[in-house]
Amino acid sequence: MSATAPTAGTPALEIHGLEAGYGKIQVLWGIDLTVEAGSFVTVIGANGTGKTTLLRAVSGLVRGVHGSIRAFGQDLHGHSPARIVRAGIGHVPEGRQLFPLMTVAENLASGADYLPGAAREITRSRATVFELFPRLAERQLQLAGTLSGGEQQMLAIGRALMSRPRLLLVDEPSLGLAPSLTKAVFRALAEINRAGVTVVLVEQNVQRSLALADRAFVLENGRIVKQGRGSELLDDPAVREAYLSL
Questions:
Q1: Quick check: pTM over 0.90?
Q2: What is the pLDDT of residues 96-137, one digit of tens each?
Q3: Which of 17, 45, 186, 204 could form a disulfide with 49 if both were Cys (CB 3.0 to 4.6 A apart)?
Q4: Is residue 25 within 8 Å of 179, Cβ to Cβ?
Q5: What is the mean pLDDT of residues 192-221?
Q6: How far is the C-alpha of 135 from the C-alpha of 32, rounded, in Å?
Q7: Where are the alpha helices (DSSP H) in the chain?
Q8: Is 34 exposed, middle or buried (0-12, 13-18, 19+ CB in 10 A)?
């Protein structure tokens, strides 16, 4: 499913001293984070703590970033979003951001545009997406804007997979979805990870995300305040009180 196997022993993502924000508003403060290749990592925290900004900084969508960001040993600092996609990083943004007047098939094809390696594998990648999300295969000629919220989320993930990423950043995939569709999306993310793609998930559904995660980070006020194995944080009394109401 991924474009290229990661170099042995090289982390998928290394962030050191990351500071980022919007204009004069600083959101992230001294973030240090390492994601091992092939792992499933989740970042949890309350709304407004900087989770989306963190993913956007990795993808080059936030300017004025300070600190270092490396993916598979490659320095990403100052690179354009297009160049970062070519480096093997896919991003499923919050809110899906599909092309509503384009069909499902056209949205998927757009994920491989201007990427020679992905374009050569477009038939295989599309088959993988349809295997993950059979509903999309049934709606190939339907306009993306007429899909249900769950179907749009499936399409957003599928479009990112068409670039054949080694690292997939996923922002709030269950937002607004019914429980049955949330379960289907999480099941697909687990399968994507088992296929060898490193996944970094930002998600308000703390219970599900920690249950899936090899490693998790807690973000508060733009700073990482806790980290550990997903199972450890799921059993952490402070995490349970703050995010699980248990």
A1: yes
A2: 899 999 999 999 999 998 898 899 999 999 999 999 999 999
A3: 45
A4: no
A5: 95
A6: 39
A7: 51-58, 81-86, 104-110, 116-120, 122-132, 134-138, 149-161, 179-194, 206-212, 230-234, 237-239
A8: middle
216 contacts 228 by C-beta, under 8 angstroms: yes
Q: Which residues lie closer than 8 Å to 32 by C-beta, 6 or more apart?
A: 15, 16, 17, 18, 224
pLDDT tens string 149-184: 999 999 999 999 999 999 999 999 998 888 888 999
Q: In Å, what is the CA distance from 118 to each residue of 110, 136, 155, 179?
A: 11, 19, 17, 33
* Percent helix, strand and coil across the chain, each to the nearest 5: 40, 25, 35
Beta strand pairing call for 167-171 and 89-92: parallel
Give me the amino acid identity at 180: S
Residues 6+ positions from 63 with CB-CB distance below 8 Å? none
Residue with tokens 């998930």: 201
| Domain 13-244 listed as CATH 3.40.50.300 | yes
Strand partners, 75: 70
Query: How far is residue 227's CA from residue 225's CA, in Å, rounded to a whole number?
Result: 7
CB 27 within 8 A of CB 222: yes
